[in-house]
Design goal:
heterodimer, A: mainly alpha, B: mainly alpha, Helix Hairpins, about 80% helix
């Protein structure tokens, strides 16, 4: 019962904050709405028993990435514009609605989801699939190559950002 | 016990909102926010299926998605800073140098 209540609370606030993120005029207000959406997504993760991902979501997304966005937003000091949407927004809304109907139709007619909850397998996998220790062990054994590749990607991101944002003295 | 399709429906709604945001808004920063919304929708999907199938592969994949979102934010913000220094705008409708 409480789980159902919290699911509808978290998902409702997530959807509402997402709409506010793309609908609000001022970029700072949009950032605060995005922060609310990310925090409530972390709540959905906790409902799904993924506590580690929820903590990472709060620390990295809401903590690091959003503060970075806010920092650049304060730094830019952009001027107010009259219209926030571009000319083709009717077309964009129409095709967004079409895509939404299409995905939902495909979703609720798929046999995979319609047989209700998928029964979890029995065995030792079912006991320790979601704690942080098993995620860490799998990350450093089965997914070691991917982990290293993601590290190299982050290094490339740092170098790219430095090269892009470096002030060029010659003009 | 909440069925899996509810989580997938929430994720679908969030993804479509992000897509409409990318198509509709003119501010570069808000477009990046919309991309973050779409990545979060994918994360909800991954974690929901991981919970339903009782396996941790989905959670590991969503960890990688969060990492790539961080790298994307760094590069996107660097591009915004360079653009603002040169053109003094973040409106993507005025940035049409590569068009045609």
């Amino acid at each position: 019962m409480a789980q159902t209540f919290f699911f509808f609370y978290f998902s409702g606030v997530t959807i509402l904050s997402s709409i506010l993120t793309i609908g609000l005029k001022h970029p700072i207000h949009s950032t605060v709405a995005l922060l609310s959406a990310l925090l409530h997504v972390a709540g959905i993760f906790i409902l799904l028993q993924a506590e580690f991902i929820a903590a990472i979501q709060i620390i990295i997304y809401a903590g690091a990435i959003l503060v970075l966005y806010l920092f650049v937003l304060m730094l830019l000091n952009q001027k107010e514009t009259e219209t926030i949407v571009n000319r083709q927004y009717h077309l964009a809304l129409f095709f967004g609605a079409v895509l939404l109907c299409e995905i939902l139709l495909a979703l609720f007619q798929s046999p995979f989801l319609n047989k209700g909850n998928i029964s979890p397998p029995t065995g030792q996998v079912a006991q320790s699939y979601n704690n942080t220790e098993s995620i860490g062990v799998a990350l450093f054994t089965d997914y070691l190559l991917q982990f290293e590749v993601v590290g190299v990607l982050l290094l490339g991101g740092i170098v790219g950002a430095l090269v892009l944002a470096k002030q060029t003295p010659t003009r | 016990m909440i069925p899996l399709s509810y989580y997938v429906a929430v994720s679908t709604l969030m993804f479509v909102i992000g897509l409409v945001g990318v198509l509709v808004r003119r501010n570069f920063l808000i477009i990046l926010y919309s991309i973050e919304l779409m990545l979060n929708a994918a994360n909800i999907n991954l974690v929901a299926f991981s919970h339903s199938l009782q396996s941790h592969e989905g959670q590991i994949l969503s960890l990688f998605v969060i990492t790539i979102a961080a790298a994307e934010a760094a590069i996107g913000l660097a591009i915004i800073v360079v653009l603002f220094r040169r053109r003094a705008t973040t409106n993507v409708d005025e940035l049409n140098l590569l068009k045609w």
